[in-house]
């Protein structure tokens, strides 16, 4: 039993010695390989160095300046000495006004609203000024560019848009703000803004109108004694994208102006204006308003060629045109602000409505006169041919004591030696009654001719008057 334990112990010692020797040999070989790789042969190392130098000389793109952000002594705040100054005050506080140049690039003119009387514009607003507190030493005179995080720690002009309703700085994917500082302290501050501002529009010539709107930029706190605001390059300070277009307007002109604005409580301020002129496209309104109104007026004239007795044909035609004109007027006014003056389109539509309404009244007059005429003619036909005051002839039996010549036209029997004078008076009275009846018939005939003439004259008067109105209208407003 004891011999078995001794044998096991001796085997364990042998295995442990073999493992230690193997690990020592492996460690020695790895150390030798590492030394060989570290030292290397002189020719190979020279080839590697030569190859590396050639690569650096042939690829200048790979040359990089030292990363100054790794050094705590070259942080932007320390380089610009932000902590050494009070940036809550403007540059040169207490001295003359600091000049701030401005230029604008209009990216898009998004919409023009007649109902709200405003416009929406997206633009790049850039400010230029010099702040010696931000100057820094530089050997290559290169500027430094920062994002919006540094803007909150230094002084920037407090610009705002006068008469603006809504405005915001774009923040996708980060705040669209850029700050660039030159070594001598010159600063460029740029931001991308969308603003909705008021535009006083005059619709007296709508839709043949031309509108002029302006975007006004001004400092909120600093008067002209502290901040002198100006266009950096005059009228060339305003740039626009050539692809800007609107559905209803043609952009005729962009230009800049500068004025002084006075507030009774605070003083005078420099104000910059971005003015642009818009001319409305007329073709849309020709198709949607003017042509339908003209066609309705022409359709109302069709009733002049329809027989005056065809009441079911002429009355619905007139009512339909009147209702259609009312719908057109309502539709145009629904998309317009409720102004207290008359617009050019209102004049055209209401005059067209009057022409349509007059065509309905024309048929009402024709129908009424025709009815009166037919009623009188009917009474005339029912009336006896002779006068009512004279006795009617009646048949009588004639015997041999009377002659045929003794019977007069009134049916009275008279003797041959009767009074001839009385007979002549009766004949004259009968002739006068027949003459008056004939004159009445002629007057009724003339009335019938005048009733037909109303439609004939309307066929000429209505189109001629409407053509004259169009000539006057388009010569004034076009």
UniProtKB/TrEMBL annotation:
Main subcellular location of this protein, as a coarse class: membrane
The keyword Membrane is assigned to this record: yes
Keyword annotations of the record: Cell membrane, Chloride, Chloride channel, Disulfide bond, Glycoprotein, Ion channel, Ion transport, Membrane, Postsynaptic cell membrane, Signal, Synapse, Transmembrane, Transmembrane helix, Transport
Domain of life: Eukaryota
This protein's record includes keyword ATP-binding: no
Ranges that cross the membrane: 282-305, 317-335, 347-369, 457-476
GO cellular component labels: chloride channel complex; postsynaptic membrane
Catalytic activity: chloride(in) = chloride(out)
Stretches assigned to the Neurotransmitter-gated ion-channel transmembrane domain: 289-380
Signal peptide span: 1-24
Compartments, record wording: Postsynaptic cell membrane
InterPro entries: GABAA/Glycine_rcpt, GABAAa_rho1_rcpt, GABAAa_rho_rcpt, Neur_chan_lig-bd, Neur_chan_lig-bd_sf, Neur_channel, Neuro-gated_channel_TM_sf, Neuro_actylchol_rec
UniProt biased composition (Basic and acidic residues): 46-56
A GO molecular-function annotation: extracellular ligand-gated monoatomic ion channel activity
CDD domains from the UniProt entry: LGIC_ECD_GABAAR_rho, LGIC_TM_GABAAR_rho
NCBIfam families hit by this protein: LIC
Subunit structure, as described in the record: Three rho subunits (rho-1/GBRR1, rho-2/GBRR2 and rho-3/GBRR3) coassemble either to form functional homopentamers or heteropentamers. Rho-1/GBRR1 subunits can also associate with alpha-1/GBRA1 subunits to form a functional GABAAR. Interacts with SQSTM1.
Protein name: Gamma-aminobutyric acid receptor subunit rho-1
Gene: Gabrr1
């Amino acid at each position: 039993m004891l011999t078995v334990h001794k044998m096991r112990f001796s085997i364990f010692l042998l295995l442990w010695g073999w493992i230690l020797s193997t690990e020592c040999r492996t460690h020695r070989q790895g150390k030798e390989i590492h030394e060989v790789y570290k030292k290397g042969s002189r020719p190979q190392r020279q080839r590697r160095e030569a190859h590396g130098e050639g690569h650096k000389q042939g690829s200048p793109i790979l040359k990089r300046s030292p990363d100054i952000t790794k050094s705590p002594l070259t942080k932007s705040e320390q380089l610009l000495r932000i902590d050494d100054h009070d940036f809550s005050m403007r540059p040169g506080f207490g001295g003359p006004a600091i000049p701030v140049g401005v230029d604008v690039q209009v990216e898009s003119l998004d919409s023009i609203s007649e109902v709200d009387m405003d416009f929406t514009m997206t633009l790049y607003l850039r400010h230029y000024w010099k702040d010696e507190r931000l100057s820094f030493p530089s050997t290559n005179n290169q500027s430094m560019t920062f994002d919006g995080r540094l803007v909150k720690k230094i002084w920037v002009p407090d610009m705002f848009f006068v008469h603006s309703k809504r405005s915001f700085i774009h923040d996708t994917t980060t705040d669209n703000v850029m700050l660039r500082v030159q070594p001598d302290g010159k600063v460029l501050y740029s931001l991308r803004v969308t603003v909705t501002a008021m535009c006083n529009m005059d619709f007296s010539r709508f839709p043949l109108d031309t509108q002029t709107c302006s975007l006004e930029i001004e400092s909120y706190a600093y008067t002209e004694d502290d901040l002198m605001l100006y266009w950096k390059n005059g009228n060339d300070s305003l740039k626009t994208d050539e692809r800007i277009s609107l559905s209803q307007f043609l952009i005729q002109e962009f230009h800049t102006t500068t004025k002084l604005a006075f507030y009774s409580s605070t003083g005078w301020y420099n104000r910059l204006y971005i003015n642009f002129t818009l001319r409305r496209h007329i073709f849309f309104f020709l198709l949607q308003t003017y042509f339908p109104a003209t066609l309705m007026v022409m359709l109302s004239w069709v009733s002049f060629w329809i027989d005056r007795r065809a009441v079911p044909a002429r009355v619905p035609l007139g009512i339909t045109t009147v209702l259609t004109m009312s719908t057109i007027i309502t539709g145009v006014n629904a998309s317009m602000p409720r102004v207290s003056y008359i617009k050019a389109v209102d004049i055209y539509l209401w005059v067209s409505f009057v022409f349509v309404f007059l065509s309905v009244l024309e048929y009402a007059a024709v129908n009424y006169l025709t009815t009166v005429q037919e009623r009188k003619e009917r009474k005339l036909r029912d009336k006896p041919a002779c006068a009512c005051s004279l006795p009617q002839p009646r048949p009588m039996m004639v015997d041999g004591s009377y002659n045929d010549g003794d019977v007069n036209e009134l049916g009275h029997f008279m003797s041959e030696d009767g009074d001839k004078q009385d007979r002549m008076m009766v004949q004259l009275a009968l002739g006068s009654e027949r003459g008056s009846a004939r004159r009445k018939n002629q007057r009724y005939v003339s009335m019938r001719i005048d009733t037909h003439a109303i439609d004939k004259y309307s066929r000429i008067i209505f189109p001629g008057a409407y053509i004259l109105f169009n000539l006057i209208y388009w010569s004034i407003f076009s």
